[in-house]
Amino acid sequence: MSRAPERSRIADPSLADAGEQRIAWVARNSPVLDLLARRRLADGALRGKRVAVVVHLEAKTAYLATLLAETGAEVVCAGSNPATTQDAVCAALVRRGVEVHAVRGASPDEFEADLLAVADTAPEIVIDDGAELTIRILEHRPELVARLRGVSEETTTGVARLRALEAAGRLTFPAIAANDAWSKHLYDNRYGTGQSTLQAIMRLTNLAVAGRRFCVIGYGWVGKGLARYAEGLGGSVTVVEVDPVPALEAHLDGHRVAPLYEALPDADVVVTATGSVDALPAHALPQLKDGCLLANAGHDDREIDTGALGPGDGVRPGVTRHHLTDGRRVYLLAGGRLVNIAGGDGHPIEIMDLSFSVQALAAHLIACGGLAPGVQRLPAELDREIARTKLATLGIELGL
Amino acid sequence: MSGLDGAGKIEWAKTWMPVLGAVREQLVEEGAVRGRRVAVILPIEPKTAYLAAMLAEAGAEVAVAFQGSMVHDDVAAALAARGVEVFARRGSTPEEELRSFAEVLSRRPEVVIDDRADVIRLAHTTHREALADLIGASEETTSGVLALRAMEADGTLEVPCIAANDARCKYLFDNRYGSGQSTVAAVMDATNLLVAGKRFVVVGYGWVGKGIARRARGLGAEVIVCEVDPFAALEAHHDGFAVMTAEAACSVADIVMTATGTRASLPPAAIERLRDGALLANAGAVDDEFSVAALRDRALEAHRVREHVEEFVLDPDRSVFVVGDGVVVNLSAGEGHPVEIMDLTFSVQALAARHLLRHGAELEPRVHLLPHEIDEGIAFRKLEALGLAIDALSEEQLRFRSSWEPFA
């Protein structure tokens, strides 16, 4: 079973029933985790292994953590962003016997302390998001690096960070780029973020998408999903890119492609999805039109330079109004944090069923040992098996 | 409950309703509703609240009421604080709702802005004393207009009614884009499930059904349409959707959404065909487009699995899930239509009320359309607010359109 749940730091254990209901609904809609991952992990490879799960702590993540714990791992969890933690889900996890260090709205210092508390459990396997825990172990707990059998990384941003570490010669353990599995980025980043981001924008504002001009900054998998769903809901899309290849894709997908300074003045909604920082930098803010909505769909809270927007007044839950110098007002959603999770329930469950199946199989692979150090993909055969299982649950057959 | 959140939501709605704001200025300036009694029977959420508040601010005495499943208490509280009489609370019983409608009628409204013709029907039956002061009514929904036309046909309609629903600035936008976006969004929010790849059955291909089908497709679903009207069914076919009977569609459905404006749109045989895990939601104005009560009777057990989702276990290995209690899902499990859409709808309503107050005495007790120039004026104001310019017919085109002689 898991590590000491009584060492947990959570907001309110009495919320467990509400969290339990949410996890049960996820369980009902996660057939791949149940059919494939649970079966494969039943070999006991994870028994007694210390696994840290540092991913946005909501019901889908909780179900993954539970599944790992049920197959014998000692699981400890923290959120990857204090704005996306759901306290009720944390309470349910603790009641299920998992150690959790996460509170919604934690200060930067508290968040840091929570991650270090997880690091101090000396995890052997890390399921990471944005490489947040991996980086902290390397920086602040170098003595624990030797205990690390491997990490598996959820996001484009995190994989980029791990590759940078590898290039600097600091990656002495295997790191599976779960994000780069087909069963992950083709679905999660595109359909998952696409639907849930548009959904969060609609929910937070109660505004129409039809007729709105969207400016999508970044045309990676996330940007592609955003553009597609914005258009599917009746919006029109301008794409801003720095890489000529995706810019050309955007053009052939039928979107207007323009430099940032040309795209912003007529945008009704600006969504950042670069996986970097400063996608909407301070110097571009004067280009925004009055009444523009700003949202971030990327991993890092700094895609939009919210500092340069100055303080805002809350006008609705999750919406703040900021005044630009000449009297124009813009509306920032979810404080510039990942809008689909900070302002909603995150990705659709069926999508995370795929993503977390990748994570569970990656954790299993690490537990089995024998991997070389460095960033690597999930073996193609496992990746295909996830897709094949999903198709089977849909009753879809291939071939003749 | 605190009115603070509600007040903020009403202000937010106002920000995105420029046309209604201009109508408000007009009403304040000309005093058309000053001292007049207006009843607003609409779901109590931020946009309707702004309509009621702006009528009150233009000097009308406004009373509002509605069915409890579509009342947002924070908004109701904020509305009361703005000087509107509110007779509604979330979770009210049908008896309480009847009493609130009676309360509203006891204020002797001169104009009723009605929804599903509920209060107009009461005024013609159990509360006939209200007819003495009632100049006329304006009706919001397709199903309400149907009821009013039935009253007109059998000679029972005693006051002029404007079919606000039938204004082009209403049904072309509200029923299609408004319901389309917000009902699909409500199901996504309520379930946290994916739309892409789902078989999404739309029962009824009127304006609401058209909007739902389009948005569901835009989100990646495979859409199947069920109809009883051959023209609408052919439209669906030419829009590229599969067309099937309800029974056939239900046997493959992941999501079923009703949008017929009538009751019993899903026959028991169709419900029996639903597969394990199917979601059911109603996007229409009528509460029993499919019968939740019948499902409850049929089910081995029923229990809530998320805030707005109830599971009905039909067989030991087969459950269906009702989203939003079978009541119009964008309001029971969401905040209703997008604000900008309601800017159009409620400009229709406010100007319909104004028209009735000014000219109601000259109108026959029939169902009337909003005068064309008022409808068109709203569209022009919206285009202007959006910064969109359009062309005008040239002299030559106008001549062509008004002449009949064959051209050489």
Number of E-state strands of chain B: 15
Helix content of chain B: 40-55%
Oligomer: heterodimer
In spatial order, strands of the major sheet of chain B run: 9-8-7-10-11-14-13-12
Specify the helix fraction band of chain A: 40-55%
Distance between the termini of chain B: 73 Å
Please report the two chains with the greatest interface, counting residues with C-beta closer than 8 angstroms to the partner's C-beta: A-B, 39 and 42 residues
Structural class of chain B: alpha/beta
Rg of chain B (C-alpha, Å): 22 Å
**Biggest sheet of chain A, strands in spatial order?**
9-8-7-10-11-14-13-12
Main sheet specs of chain B:
8 strands, mixed
β-strand percent of chain B reads: 15-25%
Main sheet characteristics of chain A: 8 strands, mixed
Total helices of chain A: the number is 15
Total helix count of chain B? 17
Q: Helix and strand succession of chain A?
A: HHEHEHEHEHEHEHEHEHEHEEHEEEHHEH
| Uncertain ranges of chain B | none
Please provide a brief summary of the model.
With 400 residues, chain A is of the alpha/beta class. Chain A has helices spanning 16-28, 31-41, 59-70, 87-95, 108-119, 132-140, 156-167, 182-205, 221-232, 244-252, 260-263, 306-309, 339-342, 349-368, 380-393, and strands at 50-54, 74-78, 99-101, 125-128, 150-153, 174-176, 213-217, 236-240, 256-257, 269-272, 292-296, 313-316, 319-323, 329-333, 374-376. An 8-stranded mixed β-sheet of chain A has the order 9-8-7-10-11-14-13-12, covered by helices on one side. A 7-stranded parallel β-sheet of chain A has the order 3-2-1-4-5-6-15, sandwiched between helices.
